[in-house]
Every structure is written in structure tokens, then in C-alpha cells.
Amino acid sequence: MLKPILLVEDNPRDLELTLVALERSQLANEVIVLRDGADALDYLLRRNGYAERDDGNPAVLLLDLKLPKVDGLEVLKAVRETPELRSIPTVMLTSSREEPDLLRAYELGVNAYVVKPVEFKEFVTAISDLGIFWAVLNEPPPGSLRLTRRGNN
Amino acid sequence: MTTAHTAFDQAVERCAQEPIQVPGSIQPQGFMLVLDEQDLCVLQASENAERWLGAAAPELLGRTFAELISDSFDLRAQMQYLPVDEVFPFHIGDVELRQPSPDCSHMRVLVHRHDQVLITEFEPIRTASGPSGHGDYYPLVRAFVGSVLKVSCIVELLQQSVLQIKRITGFGRVKAYRFDAEGNGEVLAEVADPGYPSYLGLCFPASDIPRQARELYRVNRIRVIEDANYIASPLYPHSNPRTGKPLDMSYAALRAVSPVHLQYMRNMGTLASTSLSIVVDGKLWGLISCHHDQPHAVDLPTRTACELLASVLSLQIESREAHTGTQTMLDMRQRIVRMLASMADHDSVSAGLNALPQVLLDFASATGAAIISAERCDLIGVTPPAAQVNALVHWLSQQDAESVFSSDNVRRDIQDLPELAKHVGGVLAVAISQIHSHYLVWFRPEQVRTVNWAGRPEKAISAAGSLNPRHSFERWQEDVGGYCEPWDPLIIEGVAELRIAVLGIVLRKAEELAQLAGELRQSNKELEAFSYSVSHDLRAPLRHIAGYTELLTEVESENFSERGQRFLKHIEEAAHFAGTLVDNLLNFSQMGRSALRMSDVDLNALVETIRNELAPDFAGRTIIWDVEKLPKVIADPAFINLALHNLIANAIKYTRGREPARIEIRAKQHPHETEIYIRDNGVGFDMAYANKLFGVFQRLHRMEDFEGTGIGLASVRRIIERHDGRVWADGEINQGASFHFALPRHSSNT
């Protein structure tokens, strides 16, 4: 069983486009979508609504920088401060090129940082590179299959 | 003064030590009794009193005024006419002597309080021989006052004065002279009877009148010597019993003078003299000196009239000098105001002064000036070469910072810079800001002037080292070089005023700059916030438009008409362009904010990389590249790469359609900067728009002809300016263009 990709994105259009991009990258992993930082922490820490979820961490955490309630950097910080979560590969997705964000994310131990390009093709390339690297290449599950994924229901 | 005293200096100093105010004796034309003011008894008497009183001086001691002189003259009663604060001999009345002497029966009594005693002086009343006949000089004085009001210049004033004084006193020659700063006296006016040598225009050296004599002239405005061959009459006893010292005769009319002076008079052929002091602002300004080749008496009314004339003259000179001073000050202030206004207009001290070169020169009555600031040295009028002005500024910077520096002889005063004296005589300088080495300097040329001395100025020195007055007063010429016209103290004061005013402006500017910097910081913060929100909020929708359009094209393309597909393509391109625009703008704003990371940059390698990167843009075209060996520069490699990238991309873009296109990249080394330029044979531009080229969003071409966001050249300028360099461009429509940038050269060790 492949570990899922956890995508935290509040903007519905970015979400849709990201999912298309992930779909095109032909990754086999399931994509779990959450819409804000608080939800993401609940999921990761198996609290509240997610207390009963299957255990195990996602293969990769794709985190938008600006999120409602708890923003991306705070989620990242919590992940890095929690021993069980610390090893989750985390990628920041953002529109921002602003240095303070970039520096802060690196200080908090982000694994990669992607400025979402305007060009959709570039975006697809960037997302699939990320997915392949972190979800597949990083932890190649034995005998894994390539499945064609339909989008998130 | 100099430590190496010459024998002459020592002799002059010895002369100045002579206690001339306590000579111990008097001139013999009258006699002196020193009284105790309480009992009016005699404490000291001049030995010649015997001639009038019939008793030797020792016999006079202890006796009262009344018993010695006259019963009818009540001294105590007359004393009430003596003003309490009067210090000069005051004529309190005339007495008839008990025993008339052969030449006179009546004597004038002059008294003054000094040295704790009452000094009474007696002088014979002579029949008046002056033009007024009866000693009534009022009409003369009135006429004199009337006449001096009409004359315009000081020399004329002096000429009027000597004429009047000669008329009143009957002296053979009367001359007036003025002392210069060193104390040399120049004869400015003279009237002389036939047979008297003329001294008009001649200079009497300062050593002629020793220091203590000058001081006596200053406090006691008249001195009479009736006969240079007189035999002085000593006081008996020698010392004033109240003080135990010889009597201080500073104010006494009969005071005996220095034997050196009597010798000086005899050498000059003068047997009688009267000197009247001209005192201006409490300083000895000059003297009127009257000479006669024979002994010549000047009686009291005449002396009083002369004193009055001299006082009127002094006041006139004082008021004229004050007036001239006020006028000078007023002119100077007007010039200061003009210069300040100009500095404010130009927003710069240097530029403001440079705009008014004549005012700056006139301000100090100078022929040349220099304005030195941290960046530049502007020369106005006749000045030494810039290198020497800079050396002078360096020298000045080691002197006292606060005060105005002035020299009317740079050879003597600035011995470290001997070259300077070849160009100028005098320098006036003031530091506006020493930290920034900001100076104003004025120059005056050397003026060789000829001084006509009344005899060689050195007095002969006797074997004993004392001073012997010279025998010859023949004109003796000396050329005095190395000096410029002396700087008027008012000008020096004015320069100090200018400095304070300019400092005010500089300070205000500094405050404005500080405030501006604060506002700039604030607006920079706002700009950061703005670009952050642009980057976040604007990029997202653009991304969505681009993304969905592409998806739509992919998924639904077969359902669209050809026209519809074209529209889709336009939407996609527009979104893409807008995205690029936003990205470029963000880059551009970041360029102004991020720190430069300087290092050695190999421009040839950069150009090569950029050409490879841009290769797809000119695929299929013929471009003749002419890239010279470029020098290494010290710069931020990423930024310089971006600037070169923009310029080369432009050259490729704007030569589109040229077969072949030519792109030349060359460098020129200048003393202070390295210039790089990129020349092409493309469409060029109209030089009328050259100033717009480097502005943000400035485009000179239609989008259909040449695409672009209008940020490229603005970025180039920002990058180069951040390196303290400059950018410019040359071009002509359809004749190609060249874009230049110049980076400051750093010394090899940085």
C-alpha cells in the first residue's frame, strides 16, 4: 500500500489545477486533500475528526504557504517539532517569491519550495517532479504499481 | 615674535623700557610745585622755581601755596572749579607773583590730581601772537568744524586740520600721519613754510616712537617741547614723599622728554614741536606733529584750541570710519544674502556659489576663489592650479578648524607650500565642514609696493647698545614684496558670518535628508508589503487563467471554431504576459532592496553564457558577433548577469530583420571607470526619447513590432546605479543603437 500524498490547499482553483497536475504525473499514491492548517494538524496528529484514521504518515506533505486558521509555516513548524512527524518530507507550494517566507521555511526545515509558475505546463512539470521524487523515488515501496488515478472524488 | 632678536630689536626694546613718565625733571619754561591737597603745603618743587619765587627748592618745602605765591589767589576756593574726574592739567586761574620776574608778572596756574598729590604747574603768560590776537579761538574752531563737514575723504580732512593748526600755532611745518598695523606712520598731509624739508608721502618707522611713548600719546593728547635744547629742571626732592618713588608726570604739561627724542629733534633740524594725538576707537590712529626750526612757545589758549581741533578731527575720522565700516558690512551682508539665496535655489552650497562667481569674489575683494567640497574643487578667477589649491586645503585641514584663516603673505605664513607664493600673495579661507573637507578659499595677488621711508629705518645703535636717533631723514626707498592688499578685519568677520549662515543651510539640509531617509524607509516598507501582495494575490488569478485556458484548449479544443481557438490562444498569451510582467516587476523591486554581493566578474564568460541561453531566440538568423576581450570588473555577478542579459537580449530583439545583424560588445578603460557597451545595427531609436529609455514601462516600439514589458532597461539602470555606475545610450532611427554602462574602477587591493 502506497502512502498517501497530503495536499493542504485552500484555494479551490489552485487545488483543482494541482490535482490535475498530480494526475498527469501518473503517481499511484492516493491524494488526501485538506483545506486549512488546523485540519492538516488534526489529520497529522490524529485528533478530533481524524482520531480514528489509519495510522501512518503521508509519503509527502504538499503545503500551501497561506492557509486559513493555521498557516503553512505554522503547520511546518508543528511537524518539525513533533517527533513522530518530523521525518515527513514537506514541500511548500506558494505564489510568493518573497525572501522572508523562503528563509523562514528553510529555517523550519522545509525539504523543497516551489513557486507555482504562471505557466500551467511548468506547474505540471514542477508538481510531477516533486511527486516522483518524494512519493516514489524517496521511498520506493517494493512491487509498487503504476496506477492511473482519477482525481479526488 | 621671532626668538632671534637682532641687536636693533634689543635696542628698540631697551628704548621702550625707558621710564619716560617719571623723568624726575621738567621742561624749564615754567615751574612745578607738588602739593599736599589737604594743607596745600609744598611736597616737591622744581629747582627752577627759584627764578620766579626767589627761593631755592629746598626752602620751599613745607610752605603753603598762599605764603609762596599770592594772598589774593585763594587756591582752595579756585579748586572748586576743578572737576572731580578731571585728569588733565586744568587751568584754574592766573596769579600775580609777589616778586615779578624780569620777563613776566603773571602766571597761569594748571593743576591736576595724580600719584596721590596735587600737581600745580605755572607758566608765564605771554602776549598772544596768533592771528586771533586775544586768545579767542572760538571763530577759528567754528570755521574748522564747518569746513570738515564738507570734505569727503580723510586725507582732505587731515589737510584742513594741518592748515588750521599751522595758522593757530605759527609752527613752520605741520604734518599729519596715520599709523599702519605695524605702527609705521605715513605722512598723509603737510603744510610747510619755505625752507622746511617736506615729508609728505614718507613713512616714519614704528621704532621712532617706542611703545610706552605711544601709550602716553594715547592718554595724553598733547605734548609740547618749546626748545629742544632746554636744560631740564629736576624736582626736589627726587621722590614723591607720598609714594617714595619719582613723581608720575604722565599728564603734566611740563614733563621733560627723553634725551633720545631731543636728539632726534635736533637731528631733524627741529627745535620746537607740538604733537597732537588722533585717537580713534580708543586707539592711537595717528598724530599731528608741528615743527619749528627755532624754539617756539605755544601758550595755553592755543594748546586748548589745538586739542579741541584734534578732538573734532578724531571724532570725524571715527564717524567716517564707522560709516565706511557700516557700508562695507552692509554690502557684504547683501552679498551673503544673495549667495545664500543661490545656495537654497540650487540646493547645494557649491552649485549656489558657482552660480555667482563675481559676487563671491567681490565679497572678499579677491581676484580668485576656490570652492572645495568632498567631490570637487571649483576654481573662480585667478587662482593657483588645482593641485596647489588641494595642497592648501590639506594644509588648512591641519590648522584650527573653527576660525577663519587669513594671510596677506603666504610666503611668510605658509612655508610648507613654497609653490603657492608663485601664484598668489594672500589667502583667506574658511572651513564650512571639516569632516567633509569643505572649504571656501579666496586669493589676492602679490602687490610689490614701494615704501618711501623718512631716512633708513634703522636707528644707529651706540656701543652701549642704546638707541641713537638717525641723522638723515632723506627719502629712502624700499620695495616691499610678498604681500597682498591686507585683508580688512571686516571681511574676515564677514567670512565668519558667511560660514555660520552656510552651516545653517548645511544643517537644515542634513535634517531634511534625515527626514527624507525616514520617509524613504517607510515607503520602502510599504513597497515591500505591496510587492508581497502583488506576488501573492496577482499571480494566483493569472495562474488560474493560464491553467484553465490550457486545460480548456486541451480538453475541449475540437468543440471550438478556429476563431474560438484563436481567442483561447490570446487569453493564454495575455495571462502569460501578465505573469511575466508581474515577475519582472517583482524582480525589479527586489533589485533595489537586496544587498550586493561583490566579487570579480569575468564579463567574457558571462557574455558567452548569455549568448547560449538566448540561442533559441535567434535561431535561424545570421548574427555577426564581435565580442572584444573584456576586462574583469568587481560587481555583483548575478546582477551584472541580469543587466548584460537584458542588453544582449535587446540587441538580438531589435536587430530582427537585419541580414546580417551585427552585435558588438566592447570595453573602454577610463581613469576612474570601466565602460562596457553593446552596439547593434538594429532599428535604433530617436535620441529625442533617449531620456525615456531607462524609465520603467517606457517603450518606444509597438507591441506587434517588438514585444516587451518595458522593464528591462529600467532594471539595467537600477543595477548599474546600485554599483555607483552610470548608463546611457546613443542611437538613430534605423541606424542602430549603442547602450553603455560604466562601473567605477576599484583599486586593485579592494
UniProtKB/TrEMBL annotation, chain A:
Pfam families: Response_reg (PF00072). Keywords: Phosphoprotein. The modification 4-aspartylphosphate is found at D64. InterPro entries: CheY-like_superfamily, Sig_transdc_resp-reg_receiver, TCS_response_regulator. GO terms for biological process: phosphorelay signal transduction system. CDD domains: REC_Rcp-like. It comes from the Bacteria. Residues 4-131 form the Response regulatory domain. SUPFAM superfamilies: CheY-like. The keyword S-adenosyl-L-methionine does not apply. SMART domains: REC. The keyword Phosphoprotein applies. This is Two-component system response regulator.
